[in-house]
Amino acid sequence: MAFRFRRTLRIAPGIRLNLGKRGVSLSLGPRGASVTIGQRGTHANVGLPGSGLSYRKRLDTPAERGRAERHRGRERREQAHAEARRQAEALAQVSLSLGERGELITKDRHGEPLSRKHRRQLWQQQGEAITAWLHERMDAINGDVELLANIHLDTPAPAGDPEYEPVYERTPFDEPEPKPPPTPAMAPKPEPPDPPQPGLLTRVLGLGEAAHAERIAEAEADHRRRYQAWLAQERATAEQHHRAIARWQRDHALWRERKAAHEAREAERERTFPQRLRTDPRLMEDLLAETLDDLDWPRETLVDYEIQPDAATVWLDVDLPEIGDLPQREARMAKRRRRLLVKDKPKTRLRREYAQHVHGIVLRTAGTVFATLPGVQRVVLSGYSQRLDPATGVVDDDYLLSVDFDRDGFARIDFDALERVDPVAAVAAFPHRRRLLKRDGFRAIEPFAMAGALG
Predict the structure, then answer these.
(1) Mean pLDDT across 143-165
(2) Total domain count for the chain?
(3) Is residue 302 within 8 Å of 361, Cβ to Cβ?
(4) What whole-number distance in Å separates Cα of residue 351 and Cα of residue 56?
(5) Statement to judge: residues 246 and 329 lie in one domain
(6) Partners of 409 in the β-ladder
(7) What is the pLDDT of residues 359-377, one digit of tens each?
(8) What DSSP line would sit under 47-67, residue for residue?
(9) CA 292, CA 385: separation in Å to the nearest integer?
């Protein structure tokens, strides 16, 4: 058998340090009853000194160590899960915002900036959602520039008569149809009573026969009275129902007459609609108001109009948006797609976009009038905007342009290729008043007036 060599150092009474080739161990207790703790585990040593008899048992068995390891592993997993839950709760309540130049700002529910670690976890967990949010913010900053610049693409052509739409013209016949009276419920017919039965003395000895006959006669008389009352009630109910039917028939006949007259009037209104659309200013105003209200503008646009008595010219005043209502900055996604790059638009570009938008509004509004009112031959449209007068400090309505459109000239526009039409040049092809400077933009003008308009 192999020999084992070790060196023992006495540290204190009952405590020894054992130095061997396999490592260091510690023995506690007197000889014959000690506990050894080392790399190979914890052992209990029992023996009789001088006898050569000893017993050695391992205290920390592999099963116990396995249970301890599993317990520690379960604790570690629970701690990891708890930490993950805490992080998820913290990241679920993160608020996002943009800095002045488009940098992404992330804060927790307490308003504190996220740490670098939490920001990294946030991007790992919610990267797609954050990118989508950045795109939304980018669109909000840029605005719908294409819609603003190309609003003239929805300009309708001055076609013929619009289709008759009862929603504008027809007055519904909302008088309810008279209903027939309900059939009255019939009371049950009284049944004849069972005849009274004679008593025992009457059956055996014939006593009280007269009294019994009298009871029979009273029962029959009572039945006749109840039957006559029932018959009278039924006759009265039938007569009342007959009178109700007669009233309903008269009312229903009058209702049919009124409905037929209403339908005749509506048919006449539909038949004369094209003519009245050219001659009836009230109808023209109502129809134009409905059409203008249905237009989908990217900015609130107020329109005042007046139709001249000859019904051939419409005068409009349009409240144009301010240049400050257009998107003043532009944004694009950075290379790493984790922030936006935001900068102010150049002034010249802003003025160009504003001029494109304003002329597009004018062109589309005039086209809507021509398409809605086929009898109108001229549309005189003036656009104004609110501006600060630096001399007085007062905000006034300044007219920026005034245009006199005629139907024939407007019809020469190629409405099948409006994407090739420059609204600024298209408006300039008609008699107009406008001071549009390259460096300063629009200057105030004196618009066309009814008395002095071109004619």
Answers:
(1) 79
(2) 3
(3) no
(4) 98
(5) no
(6) none
(7) 999 999 999 999 999 889 9
(8) EETTTTEEEEEESS-HHHHHH
(9) 19
